[in-house]
């Protein structure tokens, strides 16, 4: 059934978030609401202050760790809940552990809010599954043709080679990645035969939450009691907020690296003041976005955070009914700039 063109679309964007008026439910709202369906645990999508949270059951411990004592219920992928005759279901987004898309159905009309997503199977999160719909709300974090990711295996081989070389030179490798998602993706494929893997407290705390959900190598939390000599030659996983802090002095001599899609930009490594940049993103590249949209069979596309204007213009040229919408989601910029949640952990070590 074609998407309705009247003044009452199934989902609208207002000052609190993405709203379904018929069910009085918000999707990933950025201001406090009564009932919120949450796609995943990153801070720009799961915020504190809602009265009731609904999310995938593997995301429940993640957001409780981040947000504290909240009223939250978990459902499985493909499980349907009905609110005032509107059907909601969650489907794999492949972004990070616990991430989902939200499918919304009412009177034969189907919308899908993708949240953040990627098409490459990272080996720890449930792989992305396209969902047939009339309207698709997509992020555009890396919505430029210049973004084309290399296979994860190739990037991890580069990282392990870098670590081995640093170890042979008597240096510690300090690799920056967001404490939720990116750090565990890196950890999963680090080669422990090279040496010991150490973690910043913010990453270790989150990894402890996620260990029941995935098989990770052994790690050692860096505390005041851990000696500098013990760390030398090892791999240290740290959040971006630790860069430039007094905490990192314990690693001398060291080399720094950063894993992010933004490392694809020429000059990004220099601007971030790191020795090595590894292009690894938990978001789609250009082709991943296009193939995902095509697989949904949708007619209408709403483009949100990222290169939304450019991406939207291209979609319209391809025959889609596309427009942009303003949100308070940040995509991978949130990961790069995530310092507030790391501050206490940094000061404690």
Largest sheet: 7 strands, mixed
The CATH homologous superfamily of the largest domain corresponds to Ribonuclease Z/Hydroxyacylglutathione hydrolase-like
Report the top-level CATH class of the largest domain: Alpha Beta
Low-confidence stretches: 1-6, 339-349
Mean pLDDT score: 92
In what range is the share of β-strand residues? Answer: 15-25%
Order of helices and strands: EEEEEHEEEEEEHEHEHEHEEHEHEHEHH
- The helix content is 10-25%
The N- and C-terminal alpha carbons lie at a distance of: 57 Å
Main features:
single chain, 349 residues, alpha/beta, Metallo-beta-lactamase, Chain A, Rossmann fold, 7-stranded mixed sheet, 6-stranded mixed sheet, 19 strands, globular, disordered N terminus
Describe the protein in words.
Keywords: Exonuclease, Hydrolase, Ligase, Nuclease. Its EC number is 3.1.-.-. The protein has helices at about 60-65, 150-170, 180-190, 200-210, 230, 270, 285-295, 310-315, 330-335, 345, and strands at about 10-15, 20, 25, 35, 50-55, 70-75, 80-85, 85-90, 100-105, 110-115, 135-140, 170-175, 195-200, 220, 235-240, 255-260, 275-280, 300-305, 320-325. The protein is an alpha/beta fold and about 350 residues long. It has two domains: about 10-145 and about 280-330, Metallo-beta-lactamase, Chain A (4-Layer Sandwich), CATH 3.60.15; about 150-280, Rossmann fold (3-Layer(aba) Sandwich), CATH 3.40.50.10890. A seven-stranded mixed beta sheet has the order 7-8-9-10-11-18-19, covered by helices on one side. Strands 1-2-3-4-5-6 form a six-stranded mixed beta sheet, with no helix packed on it. The longest helix is centred in the middle third of the chain and has 17 residues, at about 150-170. The radius of gyration is 21 Å and the shape is globular. Residues about 1-5 and about 340-349 have low confidence and may be disordered.
